[in-house]
Structure formats: structure tokens, C-alpha cells
Design goal:
The complex is a heterodimer. In chain A, strands 1, 2, 3, 4, 5 and 6 form a six-stranded mixed beta sheet that branches. In chain A, helix 1 runs antiparallel to helix 2. Chain A is of the alpha/beta class. Chain A is built from five helices and six strands. Chain A has one domain: 3-Layer(aba) Sandwich (Mannitol-specific EII, Chain A), CATH 3.40.930. By secondary structure, chain B is of the alpha+beta class. Chain B has one domain: Histidine-containing Protein, Chain: A. Helix content of chain B is 46%, strand content 23%. In chain B, strands 1-4-2-3 form a four-stranded antiparallel beta sheet. In chain B, helix 1 runs antiparallel to helix 3. The chains are: A alpha/beta, B alpha+beta. The interface between A and B is medium-sized, with 25 and 23 residues.
Amino acid sequence: MRLGDFILEESIIGELKAATKREVLAEMVQSIVEAGCLEADAAGSVVEALMRREEIGTTGIGHGVAIPHAKHREVRRLLGAYAHSSAGVNYDSLDGQPVKSVFLILWPDGVIGPHLEAIAQVSRVLKSGNFLDRLKGASDKREIVGLFSATDKETQS
Amino acid sequence: MSVCSVELPIDGQAALHLRPFQEIAERAAQFQATVTISRGSKTGDAKSIFDMMELAAQKGPVTLEADGVDANRAIRTLSRIIRKAVRKALKEERDAQRGRDRGAV
């Protein structure tokens, strides 16, 4: 699986306006609505599902990265969004560091597993060379798309 | 120094999720021993959350190997976390299957 298989290009945000975890999730879910992949009236409920997952344990895994994820009945297929924050967002991360790179993953309720492939690919690219440093410094959408595309090619096994 | 390893047979195709990987990485970091986890075609450093996440989509038995003064304790602790996570994953699979059988999307 490649990042390009689930991250919607329309849902790549170069610079988040959000300043809190909930606002980050809402802004990213809204980008999926605007990409035409989620009904607008489902957005609030999807954000709540993501927040419920955060309450079980933060998805701020450290190193400035968060991978919020949730299943939802209104989601029709594996979907992803990416957002960057230059200032960093307080995300209750495992290492206490602000989050600059957020990979959001959604998948249909009743389906086990598709997000695990997505998470595995995210971890593969994050480990790849200096990709994470470059990603955390990238606030231009075209630059981020280019980084995803290049690293997808490098990490395909 | 001591070296210790264990293979945990896992029923079905149970996948390990992000939550147990976070717990494994946090707990593994508390031991002096180096600890590696292998599943399917992947092997990773149990103290690295990125390595652990890369195992997310792998199937089959999990092998834990530890090398260091507290290797035995590390293996016991991490085995317990993995067994608990597998039980939970299998329950989620069964619940999801029941949902599909009822015609849920």
C-alpha cells in the first residue's frame, strides 16, 4: 500500500489553522468532506469517533507525529488526510512534544484491518532517511504531495 | 548478560493495533535489554514505535527476543501485553463478523 492509495490529495493541508486537538481533527475531517468523500452531516460524528479513540490513548506517538484514526458507519472506504502545523499543536503526545505532522485515517465500520496497512505504510515512510524532518518542515501543499510521491516509490517492497 | 526468546502462537489472523504497540514500545524502553519483535516478514526494535507500527499488518506467530541483564523480565512483561492485545483483537474480529452477519455495513 502507498500513501497515495488512501491520502486524498484534496485533503492535504499545508498549514493548519487549528490550535487544539479537536480543532485539528475537525479541520481535517472538513477537508475530506470538501473532497467529496464524506457527507457534510456526518462530519461532527466522525470527529467524535476520533476523539473517543484519543480518550482511550493518545495517537500522538511522539517525534512530532500523530496518527488519529477511527472507523465510522458513514465512511465507505479507507480514507486519509494529512496536515502540517509549523507552530505545532499540543496533542498530549507520548513524548510531550507538540505535533507538526498529522496523518488521519478513517475506514468503514464492520471492517477489520485496512487501517493497519495504512499505519504500517506511514511508519515505513517515517523511518525512511530524513523524510520526517523534511515533512515537518514542509508547509507547501505541492511540496508535501511531491514528498509523498517520492517516498512511496522508495518504500515499495 | 542473558539472552531470552519466546514464540507466541497466535490463533487466527489477529492483527495487533496501534494501542498495544504504543504500550509495548513504552514498556520495552524501561528495560536495559535490547528487545526485538518479529512477525511475518518483519523484525523491529520493540523500543521504536515506528518499528512496532510497521508490524501492524503482519500475521502469524510473534517472536520476542531480548538480550541483556533483564531479558527474562522484559520477555515476560511484553508477552503478557501481546497476549492481552491478541485476545482483544480476536474479540473485535468476532464482534465485527457478527455485525456483518446481521447485515451491517
